[in-house]
Amino acid sequence: MLLEFQRAFAAFLMHGAPPPAAIDRAPGNAVRYGVYQRNFAGNLAGALSGAHPALHRALGEAMFGELVIGFAATNPPEEADLHRYGGGFALHVSRVMPEPAWLPDLARVDWAASCALHAPDAPAVTADMLDAGLLANAGTLRVVLRPHPSLRLLALGHRVRALREALLAGDDAAALDASRKISTDGENLAVLRGTEGITVLDLPPAAFRLATRFAGDIPVTDAVAGEVDAEALGLFLHHGFFSEAEVT
């Protein structure tokens, strides 16, 4: 009996199903329990808005709210921590709003930034922390540089970084200008959390390919497949791409 009630109440909260019979029969209970339904929906909307601030600003309250309702109806949270809720939102956006075509990419950058923000803490490896000889011989030693827990790598079809920056800054004129200039030649982004907050870097193709290989937690010799790209490695170290260096 209790289990049936719990399942019916969960369906009532998450899917808009009719309230459980036990609630429906009691005078006034349907109205009172509706408060729980509205609070639940409000919590999900707040979580998705917090994780996708640029997308929210680009779409406006009403349109973003419609997306939230549609997503929540088919993708209820699977755990209590709502910081982890919204991983499939960009896909939902692509299905529901095919135009403008760059919207899902904007959602992907927002979600990557949210994941980076809430990733576990770990000290970043810097060039100063590495032995000079280790770096000099990184092409011959079995050195593993493990990615920082906050690091997210995105290969996008549209160049949305400038638009996102303008949206987050609240600069409507710059955002409108950036939206008109979005190109479809794509961009490769690295998103991570540093000492000053979230950083979003536009990586050159070669550096992005190297970063994706490092993200596979493999030795430097295997990642570079030849001579070390010192410039790219220096960029990674400067921005804290790695949380651990180990000689295997």
Counted by DSSP, the helix tally is 13
Helix content: 40-55%
User: What is the count of β-strands?
Assistant: 5
Rounded mean pLDDT score: 81
Structural class: alpha+beta
Radius of gyration over C-alpha positions, nearest whole angstrom:
23 Å
Intertermini distance = 58 Å
* Overall geometric form: globular
Side-by-side strand order of the widest sheet: 2-3-4
Indicate the CATH class of the largest domain: Alpha Beta
Hey, roughly how much beta strand do the residues contain? 5-15%
The sequence of SSEs as H and E is HHHHHHHHEEHHEEHHHE
Main pleated-sheet profile: 3 strands, antiparallel
* Total discrete domains: 2
Q: What are the low-pLDDT stretches, counting only 5+ consecutive residues below 50? A: none
CATH hierarchy: architecture of the largest domain: Alpha-Beta Complex
The name CATH uses for the topology of the largest domain is Outer Surface Protein A, domain 3
